[in-house]
Write a structure and sequence with these properties.
CATH class of chain B: Mainly Alpha
CATH superfamily of chain B: ABC transporter involved in vitamin B12 uptake, BtuC
Number of strands of chain B: 2
Oligomer: heterodimer
Number of helices of chain B: 15
Structural class of chain A: alpha/beta
Number of helices of chain A: 15
Strand order of the largest sheet of chain B: 1-2
Largest interface: A-B, 46 and 36 residues
Order of helices and strands of chain B: HHHHHEEHHHHHHHHHH
Distance between the termini of chain A: 70 Å
CATH architecture of chain B: Orthogonal Bundle
Chain lengths: 453, 359
């Protein structure tokens, strides 16, 4: 069997004098499923257009099995290469079957009607894309997903060696996306098709492609296997997004968790320590990081949701082994971290014997005069698994001057106010203006833990 | 259900042949019907006898002694050329309409919109003013026809090359330049007409369109254009189907889009130029007949092109017959009839089938 090879060499495209693609090289062999990735305007579609012979490159060559595709007749190229456009805007109301039969055109003579063999190929293509039942329907009556599957069937009816897809999933829902990608992946494996797809969803790319080309500013930024291309670092430099790249245990593929685009938040020279766990601290950590605070957290058990968040947000933490009670040693480490903080926040975490010492640490913080906020979203009685010890500590906290608030959303405002007060004191203002004395306290002091939800 | 779909498609070819056969029969019937229309009452049996006499071999068994020579002259020299001209012009306009609409994927695309009629009218006006007495004859075309033909073809090409960007012709640009050139040429024509102050009535009548002065020579001159043009276009009907998917997709399916577009445009303009030169400007047929036909038989150009041509022929022929008798002594311009007769029918079809008719 001949090895089909598509090689793009030093391709440069221009619109007028504006370069829209520079020096792109890529070599793809049969069975490869290549994702063309990159932000909007990075040249993905341009590259696909030049490979599909729609936009002739200004420089460079595109070879299919050593033949320059621009020296081939379009009908000959169509026997080897099929393209699924981003959107199919079909002028007249052809039926789905008409559309797919057009895929046979490159293999037919000018006056030939479709033969039984053509019909068999078309039927197979339509069964594969689950569109045979739509054969009789006018294409313009079909839904976006159905239409796209019909167009893919047409591409398959061409019996191509190379399949180009330009954002094939744009208007599709989740099940359609997965079905189409599964189908294409299957073709890649069984028919040794070369597939190149422009795709925006990095997770779908990570799941289905076996290699990737990452474009940035109309140039190749990275090319290679997914592990090589889809790194946090590459994603950060190309998309300006912090993302965590992990391995999904179920699909055995990489998955990418993008975080919000980096906000140019003003860094505040102020440290806040959060006592949380079981996911109760996630929102608080993110909100305070966004506000520009230096956030720390602990003690957290490894593998805890809040622990994962702290990793994502690169927050320093004091950790305990998974599923283990907090030891005295870790508690001391945590107190040390707390002593550097200007503010401590205790979230509505459930307390058991394993993490009760976190509450003792909070009490310690209040006693040391650190402004401490307690988010009392869930009444302590319902999350006290220590036979009342946690509830007692909570009452102590209140007595000692910790401020209780009802909802995490109140926190940023209060924390900012506290921060401002601290700043004022630092600058040596002896007297805090009267109207500012209580700005870091909630307007209505909730009756801690007495109401029920 | 699936097997039904397959057998429906395998029978498609024979269904198409049947449709064409029926339409050809309808065309012949319509021709005979139209020959019967006129002030001199000539019976159908006389008409059949006169026509039969013209067919070699068959004429030996036909006894024509009962038919007067006057009637024979009326049928063969007056009515038949006129009826055939109607069929020919209608077929040509409808076929060109199919080509333009297919190439430009646009329901408004029409040889007139691209400037063919304006160019032809302007050419005719120039000829009427400056060269009216020139007794030129070129393969059956007189000076008026030649100039109108050249005007039509040149204008369409001017519009085409004006809207060319790089090696592509964006459809929106093309239609816009068509509109602009139309207006410009109309203005030029007005200037020339007013400055000359003569031959105005002739020009107005010609522009309104009609078949009053048709001779066999005209038919012989135009027939090759319509026939060869339509046959040539038939070679590209599959490409037209794929062009409906958009240029890029058509290209990916192996169509040399720009070449097909140029050939279709050239062919359509030649046909339009030829028929306009003998009939004057008859609107509506090239725009509406392909639409109507598409609504009934579907969008596949392989059947759409020939059926539209025949339906266009029948339609214009009937309209012209109506024009001859509609108002007694003075004739109505046939363009008035085509619009009056075609529009309601078209609206009916559009309302009835609007769910599947999306453009």
């Amino acid at each position: 069997m001949n090895m089909v090879l598509l090689s793009v060499d030093g391709v440069e495209c221009r619109y007028g004098s504006v370069k829209i693609l520079e020096n792109v090289s890529l070599s793809v062999k049969e069975g490869d499923f290549v994702g063309i990735l990159g932000p909007n305007g990075s040249g993905k579609t341009t590259l696909l257009k030049s490979i599909s012979r729609t936009l002739k490159p200004h420089k460079g060559t595109i070879l299919l099995d050593k033949t320059d595709i621009y020296s081939m007749k379009s009908v000959d190229l169509a026997k080897h290469m099929a393209t699924v456009p981003q959107e199919s805007n079909i002028g007249f109301s052809f039926t789905a079957l008409d559309i797919v039969l057009m895929g046979r055109n490159p293999h037919m003579k000018r006056f030939q009607m479709e033969s039984e063999k053509d019909m068999a190929i078309v039927r197979k293509a339509m069964s594969r894309t689950n569109t045979w039942h739509l054969a009789d329907r006018p294409i313009n009556e079909l839904s976006g997903g159905e239409k796209q599957r019909v167009v893919i069937a047409r591409a398959l009816a061409q019996e191509p060696r190379v399949l180009l897809l330009d954002e094939p999933l744009t208007h599709l829902d989740m099940i359609n996306q997965l079905e189409i990608m599964d189908l294409v992946k299957g073709l890649c494996r069984t028919e040794r098709l070369i597939v190149l797809t422009v795709i925006h969803d990095l997770n779908l790319a990570a799941r289905y492609c076996n290699s990737a080309l990452l474009l940035k500013d109309r140039k190749v930024f990275a090319v290679g296997t997914l592990d090589e291309v889809l790194t946090s670092k590459n994603i950060k430099s190309v998309f300006q997004v912090d993302a965590l790249v992990k391995k999904n245990m179920i699909t055995n593929s990489l998955y990418i968790i993008p975080l919000s685009p980096e906000k140019p938040s003003v860094p505040r020279n102020c440290s806040i320590h959060i006592i949380c766990g079981a996911g109760t601290g996630t929102l608080v950590m993110k909100a305070l990081v966004d506000e520009g605070y230096e956030v720390t957290a602990g003690v957290l058990n490894m593998l805890d949701t809040d622990y994962e968040t702290s990793e994502l947000l690169k927050i320093p933490t004091v950790n305990e082994a998974p599923f283990s009670p907090i030891t005295e040693q870790t508690k001391q480490a945590n107190l040390k971290m707390i002593s550097k903080a200007a503010i401590v926040v205790v979230t509505s975490v459930p307390f058991g014997y394993g993490n009760l010492s976190n509450l003792e640490s909070a009490l310690e913080a209040v006693k040391r005069g650190i402004r401490t906020y307690v988010i009392d979203e869930v009444p302590i009685e319902s999350r006290d698994f220590t036979g009342g010890k946690a509830t007692a500590l909570m009452a102590d906290l209140k007595k000692q001057g910790a401020i209780f608030i009802k909802h995490p959303s109140e926190l940023p405002t209060l924390v900012n106010a506290t921060h401002d007060l601290i700043e004022l004191r630092k600058r040596g203002q002896a007297e805090i203006p009267g109207h500012m004395k209580n700005v870091d306290k909630p307007v209505v002091q909730p009756v801690g833990g007495k109401e029920s939800h | 259900m699936t097997d039904k779909v397959e057998s429906k498609y395998s029978k498609r070819s024979s269904r198409w042949k049947l449709i064409l056969l029926l339409l050809i029969v309808a065309l012949v019937v319509a021709i005979i019907f139209c020959l019967n229309i006129g002030f001199a009452p000539i019976s159908f049996s006389d008409i059949l006898t006169i026509l039969g006499k013209q067919i070699p071999i068959l004429n030996r068994s036909i006894n024509s002694s009962a038919v007067s020579t006057v009637n024979e002259t009326i049928i063969l020299q007056i009515r038949l050329p006129r009826v055939l001209a109607g069929a020919l012009v209608g077929a040509g306009l409808a076929a060109a309409g199919v080509m333009y609409q297919g190439v430009f994927r646009n329901p408004m695309a029409d040889s007139y919109l691209l400037g063919a009629s304006a160019g032809a009218s302007f050419g005719y006006t120039l000829a009427a003013i400056y060269a009216g007495s020139l007794a030129l004859n070129f393969f059956g075309f007189g000076i008026f026809q030649i100039v109108a033909f050249v005007g039509a073809v040149l204008t369409v090409f001017l519009v085409y090359f004006m809207s060319r960007v790089g090696n592509k012709v964006p459809i929106a640009t093309l239609l816009l330049s068509g509109i602009v050139v139309n207006i410009f040429i109309l203005a030029l024509q007005t200037v020339f007409e007013l400055r000359s102050g003569k031959a105005l009535i002739g020009i107005v009548a010609w522009i309104a369109g009609g078949f009053t002065n048709i001779t066999w020579t005209n038919i012989y001159a135009v027939f090759p254009f319509v026939l060869i043009g339509t046959v040539l276009a038939y070679f590209f009907t599959k490409d037209l189907n794929m062009l409906a998917m958009g240029d890029d997709t058509a290209q990916h399916l192996g169509v040399n889009t720009e070449r097909v577009r140029q050939i279709m445009l050239l062919t359509g303009s030649l046909i339009t130029g030829a028929v306009v030169s003998i009939s004057g400007v008859i609107g509506f047929v090239g725009l509406i007949i392909p639409h109507m036909t598409r609504l009934v038989i579907g969008p596949d150009h392989r059947i759409l092109l020939p059926t539209s041509a025949i339906v266009g022929g029948i339609f214009l022929m009937l309209c012209d017959s109506l024009a001859r008798i509609a108002t007694g002594a003075s004739e109505l311009p046939v363009g008035v009839i085509t619009a009056l007769a075609g529009t309601p029918f078209f609206i009916y079809l559009l309302r009835k089938r609007k769910t599947i008719y999306s453009l």
